[in-house]
TrEMBL record, chains A, B:
PROSITE patterns referenced in this protein's UniProt entry, alphabetically: HTH_LACI_2
Lineage start: Bacteria, Pseudomonadati, Bacteroidota, Flavobacteriia, Flavobacteriales
Keywords noted in UniProt: DNA-binding, Transcription, Transcription regulation
Residue ranges occupied by any HTH lacI-type domain in the UniProt entry: 8-62
Matching InterPro entries: HTH_LacI, LacI/GalR-like_sensor, Lambda_DNA-bd_dom_sf, Peripla_BP_I
Organism (species): Wocania arenilitoris
Highest taxon listed in the record's lineage: Bacteria
PANTHER family: HTH-TYPE TRANSCRIPTIONAL REGULATOR GALS, LACI-RELATED TRANSCRIPTIONAL REPRESSOR
Protein name: LacI family transcriptional regulator
Gene3D superfamilies per record: 3.40.50.2300, lambda repressor-like DNA-binding domains (1.10.260.40)
Pfam families in alphabetical order: LacI, Peripla_BP_3
Length: 337, 337
DNA sequence: GTGAAAGCGCTAACAT
DNA sequence: ATGTTAGCGCTTTCAC
């Protein structure tokens, strides 16, 4: 059975020293004026007794936790796990704790998460929304509670909040141009069923690049499907069964792109000689396949530091602002184009 | 500038209704006895006013948060991001929030995290320790505070706490046997510099399998290096530069195994005909490469559910127990053996 | 430089 | 079924 909890409080420390607990509080937080001698004595005794500040009490009293929240649709894809990992490191460095939430791409869960965020009075929120989150409405509740938030990568449309986004249009545009430059003329586009703007932007970039290079937009070459490697495999089959086969394929995710490569190799096409392939996300998985996958990369470290800085600025200035930071992607050339 | 925070408390709800705030508290938590009529009225008014329970106050008052903590060395490797993702899902389902911490493989950070855990009075902890954490000592502080914890995958040696571990010895053993069965006789072993027991167990399994099959243990065929794909690449080069080249390679991580495959293909060896390769972890990345990597897989869902169940049992029974759950790994045959 | 008083929002225990 | 009391551990404000 559990034994008595021997939680040490500032009052215990105070009693031991025959002083007032308020003085202990002051000393331990290095605020107010406490004689150096007393302060040292207090700190010594506190660590001697194994005093650990009760954050629950502190947070309650201060009406705010020291917690930053990160909300992502799914923690497993490389982009998100890397973002979260990096974000945690710089947040912890700066003295914040981090709570992570996963919406599983469900708007309903996202709403519950926001209620929890308010309940916990988190200090700030960094969020990437679900594929279906079109409106900012449920995030507005945070604003009512004066909890600053910034969106990264995926924001609601017309969000009136600070955002750190990738220029997806440009990324897709450049990827298509890269294939055109290497001599490709019939470039296909594989997307997911997800409706979020980032995917529409990529499609727009694709279309514009074709247009600017006097290439026709062929409806059959634009298809949508699932999110994973096997989906890419299946989509590639559909594309290569066409009478007018593509000689280049842009996939909205690296995983999909890898599935494409696997199918192409299976049916004996050479990459990039017969068909070029480009993906999105700079997933390390792209290095595992052969040829290595050329990809449109967004700089995660700069997204992390922008998100963090913009959030902290709002927290410290006690204002809710609306800034838009656009990260320009770049193509990482490997072997598939 | 920030406008006045309009935080609604139970007292506000009570005042509006001309009743006592304790009744509101009872009604909202569905405890004690409150007339159904009153209860309904209260709930209606509460949601009307947009009341959100102040978790900070609740947790403080209850002396415990409703938070489960997960501590991992690094969030990015597939094994950990998948574990955390799954764990969060079932924890959220059960009404807990989750805080995630990353030790970055540093014992010092791990200690700080534990202090934070105590400060936040988390309800329970699930942890996988750093590569250098040999002793349980800093976790014992949690026990003093009656915070239950369970280790998963990586535990301190001789930990006196509940653990969910993988039978690493067996995994390595079977992997070697698999290669022997396919006719390999000179099997190499690539590990990391990490000292943690899980890697030593794998090495032991490797040795035992050789022994049981009357194969000599050749020192030169066992090498250690980094953690990543390029490290595997480099190690493979060393191995294949040997006069006595191996015809099978067991790598302690899939990423390393993929690096090995890349090197072997580069210098023209066929896989698995000339050299077989097996990795550990069932990282989806292994499906991206060619041939697809055969791997020793631990079932992450069962690790998650065991960890969660064992933790919750301790929380609910108010006891700290010491159980050891061993998950048996299995080999997933793909193309590299 | 230190102490005394008050209260954050909530809930357990007791009283009615 | 509802109300009263008290206090969790801490920090802010004001007094000395």
């Amino acid at each position: 059975m559990i034994e008595k909890r021997n939680t040490v409080t500032i009052k215990d420390v105070a009693r031991e020293l025959g002083i007032h607990h308020v003085t202990v509080s002051r000393a331990l937080r290095n605020t107010g004026s406490v004689k150096k001698e007393t302060r040292d004595q207090i700190k010594k005794k506190a660590s001697e007794l194994g005093y650990k500040p009760n954050r629950l009490a502190q947070n309650f009293r201060n009406k705010r936790s020291n917690v930053l929240a990160v909300v992502v649709p799914d923690l497993r894809p490389y982009f998100f796990s890397k973002f979260v990992s990096d974000f945690m490191n710089i947040a912890q460095e700066a003295g914040y704790s981090v709570m992570i939430f996963q919406s599983s791409e469900k708007t309903g869960v996202e709403k519950e998460i926001i209620d929890a965020l308010i309940g916990y009075r988190v200090t700030g929120v960094v969020a990437s929304v679900t594929k279906d989150t079109v409106y900012e409405s449920h995030f507005n509740i945070l604003r009512d509670e004066n909890i600053p938030y910034v969106f990264f990568d995926r924001a609601p449309e017309q969000a009136e909040a600070t955002q750190v986004l990738v220029n997806n249009f440009q990324g897709a545009y450049e990827a298509v141009v890269a294939m055109i430059k290497s001599g490709k003329r019939k470039i296909a586009y594989i997307s997911t069923h997800y409706q979020h703007k980032i995917f529409r932007d990529r499609l727009d970039g694709y279309k514009q690049a074709l247009k600017d290079n006097n290439l026709p937009y062929i409806k059959e070459l634009v298809i949508k499907g699932g999110f994973f490697m096997n989906d890419g495999f299946d989509q590639a089959k559909k594309l290569m069964d066409l009478k007018e086969k593509p000689d280049g394929i842009l996939a909205v995710r690296d995983e999909i792109g890898i599935g494409v490569i696997k199918y192409l190799k299976k049916i004996g096409f050479r990459i990039p000689e017969d068909v070029a392939v480009i993906g999105f996300d700079n997933d390390p998985m792209g290095v595992a396949c052969e040829p290595e996958l050329t990809t449109v990369a967004q700089s995660i470290p700069s997204m992390v530091s922008s998100s963090f800085d913009l959030l902290i600025r709002q927290i410290n200035s006690n204002t809710l602002s609306f800034e838009k930071k656009i990260i320009e992607p770049s193509i990482i050339y490997r072997g598939s184009v």
